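Dear V.,

Thank you for sending over the compound details. I've combined the ligand you provided, zinc ion, with the protein sequence from our construct and run the structure prediction for the complex. I'm sharing the raw inputs here so there's no ambiguity about protonation or stereochemistry in the SMILES, which I know was a concern on your side last time.
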Amino acid sequence: MLLIDCPHCGPRAQTEFSYGGAANVARPPAPEETDDAAWIEYLYLRDNAKGQHDELWQHIFGCRRWLQLRRDVISHEIISCSELRRPLAEDGP
Amino acid sequence: MNRYSFASLVRHGIMGHRGWKPAWRDPEPKTNYDAVIVGGGGHGLASAYYLAKNHGLNNVAVLEKGWLGGGNTGRNTTIVRSNYLLDSNARFYEHGMKLWEGLSRDLNFNVMFSQRGVINLAHSKGQLEAFRRRGNAMRLNGIDAELLNRDDVAALVPGMDVSGDVRFPVEGGLLQPRGGTARHDAVAWGYARAADRRGVDIIQNCEVTGIRRDHAGVSGVETSRGFIASKRIGLAVAGHSTQLAAMAGVRLPIESHVLQAMVSEPVKPVLDTVVTFGAGHLYVSQSDKGELVMGGDIDGYNSFAQRGNLPVIEHVAACLLALFPQFSRLRILRTWGGIMDMTMDGSPIIGTTPVPGLFLNGGWCYGGFKATPASGWVFAHTMATGQPHALNADLCLDRFHRGRALDEKGAGPKPWAH
Amino acid sequence: MADFRLHSGGLIDRDRKISFTFDGRSYQGYHGDTLASALLANGVRLVGRSFKYHRPRGIYGLGGEEPNALVRLRQGARAEPNIRATQIELYEGLVARSQNNWPSLRWDAASALGLVSRFLPAGFYYKTFMWPRRLWPHYENFIRRMAGMGRSPEAPDPDHYEKCHGHCDVLVIGGGPAGLAAALTAAEGGAQVWLADEGAQLGGGCLNDGDASAARDTIAALESLDNVTLLRRTSVFGKYDDHLYGLVERTGDHLASPDLGMPRQRLWHLRAGRAVLASGAIERPLVFANNDRPGVMLTSAALGYLRTYAVRPGSRAVINTNNDSAYGAAAILAAGGIEVAAIVDHRHMKERREIPGAEILHNHAIIDTRGKKGLTGVTVAQLDINGDAVPGSERQLACDLLCLSGGFTPSVHLYSQAGGKLAFREDIQSLVPKSEVPGMTVVGAANGDFGESEFIAGGAAMDRPVSLRKFRRKQFIDLQNDVTAADVELAAREGYRSVEHVKRYTTLGMGTDQGKTSNLNGIAVLSDALDRPPAEVGVTTYRPPYTPVTIGALAGRDVGPFLAPDRRTPMQECHEKAGAAFVPAGLWQRPHYYPRPGETMTEAVNREVLAVRRNVGIVDVSTLGRIDLHGPDVAEFLNRVYINGFKALAVGMCRYGVMLRDDGMIFDDGTVARMAETHFIMTTTTANAGPVMAHLEFYLQVVWPELRVHMTSITDQWAVAAVAGPRSRDLLDSLDSDIAFANQAMPFMAWRGGAIGGIPAQVFRISFSGELAYEIAVPADYGPAMWEMLLAAGQEFDVNPYGTEALTTLRTEKGHFVMGPEADGRATADDMGLGAMLSSRKEFVGRRSLRLPGLAGGDRLHLVGLMPVDGRSQIPPGAILLDKEMAGRAPDKAGHVTTSVFSPSLDKPIALAMARNGRQRLGAQLWAHSPLDNRIVEVVITDPVFVDPMGERLRA
Amino acid sequence: MPDPLTRQSALAARSGSDDLIQERTGLWIQRLYAPDREADFGDKIGLDLPGQANHVSQDKDLHALWVAPWEWLLVSEATANRDGLAARVAASGGALSDLSHARMVLRLAAEPARDILAKGCPLDLRPASFPPGHCAQSVLANVGILLHHLGDGAHMDIYTARSYGRFIHAWLNDAAPPA
Ligand SMILES: Cc1cc2nc3c(=O)[nH]c(=O)nc-3n(C[C@H](O)[C@H](O)[C@H](O)COP(=O)(O)OP(=O)(O)OC[C@H]3O[C@@H](n4cnc5c(N)ncnc54)[C@H](O)[C@@H]3O)c2cc1C
Ligand SMILES: NC(=O)c1ccc[n+]([C@@H]2O[C@H](COP(=O)([O-])OP(=O)(O)OC[C@H]3O[C@@H](n4cnc5c(N)ncnc54)[C@H](O)[C@@H]3O)[C@@H](O)[C@H]2O)c1
Ligand SMILES: Cc1cc2nc3c(=O)[nH]c(=O)nc-3n(C[C@H](O)[C@H](O)[C@H](O)COP(=O)(O)O)c2cc1C
Ligand SMILES: [Zn+2]
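Below is the predicted structure of the protein with zinc ion bound, written out as structure tokens.
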């Protein structure tokens, strides 16, 4: 079971968190001016990196903050866990 | 090639079983094939088999990076059903069900397809109503379905706690009598042997590391055993679909997640149907060898590790005891995981891609084992003709671009929620 | 019966005699015995039957590695199958039975299978049972009955289980010499140390074959330290992410039943800073024909029975070995009063060792054994240069104990689970850890380091544990699953060459022991068959659990009422007292209806509906999600998450809103009230309260961090009752309140604060039922008082409390969709007929997707109403709509029924449905077809609003 | 009919009583938000707010429990008029949400509490990791909780959403070692 080091609350068990998917999916700032292809890309297409993966988790049973993790999805090792970068960087933390 | 039968078993038995031939050859890869299928799981092998059988394409290779059947085909809970709500899914899986019913003899390999019935339990009126809709839709698609009340469930699954005295009392359920289980490994082996017999080269320990393209489309694959040319490449690599597609520059609406499964120690027959709990995440059946085979939800985060964590296993155990408190003293023998390619709408993707000559068979989520025959059938058709079969026309990748996602659960574009 | 117990020695307590039964016969043992040691002491050798051929089997090992001696332990509800006799501590009155035999252990009919076993090689079932197809279910039934091992328990478990979260600096796995030393070093360094061992006794291997005094001192030292926790009878079964270990502590298994209040087993989630794996090594058997008879045993096990339990596992022993450890063992056996007839050593050695009284046969192997239900002798032969028997060199040796000593296999399971890679070491013919994995150190025998042990040190290298290359008679590798060397060979011959294929084709290592004594031998046979070195053959994946874990322990406390939390509204007691029937709604139990004596459900629901339509009803809606929103940007935020506009909402007013997911589908709906300029309260559906909160937090924190909005879930703060019906205002007016409920003072969609009957309250004039209605929210602790007050004051207006079933009927009559049946995650706002609500003047979540072809297309399902053409027939719930002209042909479905009710207001059945292009087809007649119950009803498409289409009642 | 102005807590209607677990009723509980990252917010509203994560400050009868960055739970037993505070918070751009009725609060002696909680809560409750004067949010038996290790070190308060109150109370009693 993962131990996620919440930058706000400290190291906590995975069961306190909920998963939020890839962190490098930026919502187009002006959806109405976005063409179908780019909108579909945002909605559905994912890199699904095999290796280091940037992802969002919410500390749902803690501070309720959304956090940004970099995690090795082969070994499950968490490389970093940080406050959300605002605005979300396209290329992760 | 030996034909398998009771008589041949006896004949070889008398000779000490020294005369059996390999079930499949172990050929060196040729430099060129009419079609190359990446991934020696059930889907890749079935596709190769039907390419040869239905479309007369014999110069075909299946490239497997490890041992055939070692992916999700070798690690699933073996449930076969076609109890789908949406027409596009239902017709596709029902075609599969029909193929399953004749598969052992078609392949001359007993895949131990056991039509013991699949029950989805309902624990509320609302759930039962949803099952009514699903069951009616199934029936109108020519699929068997029966609505069960609590007594029916009790009669079908003796030993299940259907008393009103539990946290989630059983209200009833939806039964597909023709659903059941099959021996997972045998499916891979049976298809491999049958495809091999029709001339397909099954090449194990051969990892595809790149896909070559020219102006016309794909031209071949780079592998750990050298370049192999082919103008038709089919990807059937389950958890690795995104990686392989990316080699050809295609991004997919897929994330890889880990799904765990587990078996108990073997016991004498105690459970004759496949049961799915409706108030938590659990499906359970008993294998012919005697183990209870169980699974639940995905762990819920991207993963390429074929292993997961305790919370899901504990939840599955708790759900099992909610239905069968007497199993508390049975013991879990082994747990494992598989890498699932979860799509954004929970339905598979099978068909053409934007790259000419590149075909995709993936995104099977929890349910690709049961699809194996149908998937191979329509994928072979698509690869042979360049066009989707009527049964996978709605399952193609372009459905996302057309705003026609097939969201069976209505959970939206969160792959971990399907 | 012979007594095999020594008069002194061992760790048993001779003052505490224990009676137990096996297969109905009574025996005696001592406190400190295992069932296995006590059976051996009583001369019982035949203990079980094998999985496939039902061969007679005895006790083979000493602990968790035991493949053979599986019994059914205890009786009645506590009965459990497949328990290793070697791990059962004896307690007074213990009852055990053998399994997998009929009619009895000694005379097992199914052992006749042995006669045809040549036709049942590995995987035979894949090759047959295919014709005729209709017989397969019968074949399968037979296969199933022959397979399995023990019988599952049949009654609910009377014991309970516990789970605990633990945290420590260092976890030491294994309490042998290596583990004990590591624990002491770590503890002396100040760390918080936990040490876990499967056994009842700490000490590990040295209890059996070495000098245990050092270990005893270390144990005493550890016990005196308060930063050390020693867990006996505790298996570390799994290694999980971030140094989480799964442990099962068997707190009550050594007792007849757990002490009062004590769990039977406790599952630990132990988060350890680091771990020391000191799990030791398991002895490997040697392989030859008929190597499975009762009386054949691992040498280490024989020593263990002698030293730990003071039991002679036989009278006259032959030791078969390929390494030096057998010689020390022989000395110990001899000292224990066992006659060692011979040591049969595979190796050809110049330097000879002497064991008084024992014949030393170098360059010899055992090629066969004798004895029906127990070993009576062995056949030995000299080996030629190829490792085959020299013809004519065979000799018979009489013995009742055959000790196998094929070297030791390090227990690297947890290291491998942690992702550690293995390397093959020729000298010990075993796989050992290659390098460190983060957070885990492997020490002692588990690391292939057999230390100063006199047994192996200095000895010649071991040879292969497989003695014969020709597999004519049954040479078992996996004793539990009856996998022979010939099976492995056959697999290789048939192309199943990967070690993983061999495992699956033959079932090698798939039994309850997971091949602890057989996997390495399987690799050796396969390596020969493929002519590839063992290192290349590799090993199958190690998986949790290390030893099987009860399902009860994994479920822990999550059983019975604690399977999932249940939520209660502040008024739950009121409903219970009123005799409401309840229906689950997520984790809540909501009143379904309130039957009066003698009433059926239909009668009760119809009464409740009519009460609302004619007089007044009250319903508990506290389960709806409520979110408090504060901040200068709330209105802007709401504008972005709802399809309709919120900026213009005046303080004191409410507005209905619909939220989409970004893929354009309806996500939730509810009302928002503007409490003050920068303060809003949002309601959500019951089921989506949590998801909506997380959805909003996502947009606020991730997408629009610039917005200044604070959100709090206040669902639990409020008790809420909806008062609905033409007389609702009269009811409220009859109460003592500073709120004016009249139309001008409080129009439809207004809210007002004040006090009712002294209780502070917020009143919202919103309506789900379509009647004049008010939702009254009071702080939760006042909920019961408010509810009782409404009921009491309502008497004069014939108030009825109503449940969710009446609520469903009321909203169906009004054509209100709900999340689930209608908005099922695939429906857009336009599908629901809410196209006009979609603001065109602003961006909102999901808007962009609405332009995608499939969503904007002309063939979508619309929310419509249905009525039976005959005006009487109930419209089958869940029915599929078919165009009439399609009847009888492959149907292209025209939609489906979503909610079907009897409308007491119209006095006829009605339904809501999703129909293809339904809004364009008002008046069309369709079939509502429900093949499940064989019903077809002719229906006509109507507007979904059946009652008061102009909405005059709710504005009244 | 119950007296309308008597608060009926989550456990009020439950029969039986116990010594191990005491319900704290009638509390005044507010969730307090500071406007984004305003360091002197506490001074502005006249409260001593813990700046550090998982810390609790006490000012006479009022505890301020850290629950998230710039967010606290204010808890008090006294029913003193706090309109002044509400006005100050509003004036300084912060926000208060009333949760006085939204929580069930249980008090247990720290000693059994640690063992009982360990049966369903993954927090590291060893005194070194969770000392007196600290609070932490976590999950117990699949339900969200807030734990407060009181400054005296002898007690722990468990906060949970009111609707889960009965469940958590029953769970704790079930998990408690038999008397
Ligand atoms: C625990 C679990 C339980 C499941 N339960 C069920 C169930 O009950 N019912 C059901 O219908 N479905 C179930 N499934 C899903 C089902 O197992 C899969 O959908 C199905 O087996 C997929 O088959 P496949 O042939 O596409 O993939 P696989 O069997 O995974 O085959 C893909 C192959 O591609 C190979 N490969 C990958 N990359 C490369 C490369 N670069 N080069 C060459 N080869 C490559 C892999 O090694 C693998 O062998 C379950 C899955 C899991 C994990
Ligand atoms: N005769 C030989 O040549 C030979 C070879 C190898 C080992 N040994 C013996 O082993 C000793 C080596 O000491 P050691 O400490 O490395 O090993 P050990 O075998 O003495 O101790 C290992 C202990 O770990 C326990 N264990 C294993 N896996 C466990 C798990 N998952 N959970 C809980 N407990 C678990 C076992 O019950 C055992 O008590 C030597 O002193 C010797 O007696 C002898
Ligand atoms: C239907 C089914 C039944 C299984 N039964 C057993 C079993 O009886 N014993 C066993 O050890 N493993 C059993 N397994 C698990 C396999 O040993 C193995 O763990 C699984 O195929 C995944 O492979 P891996 O663990 O090698 O990664 C079973 C697997 C499946 C899919
Ligand atoms: Zn946090």
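A first observation: The interface with chain C takes residues 1-3, 13-14, 18, 20, 27-28, 30-32, 34, 36, 39-40, 43, 56, 58, 60, 64-66, 75-76, 78, 84, 86-88 of chain A (CB under 8 Å).

Warm regards,
I. M.
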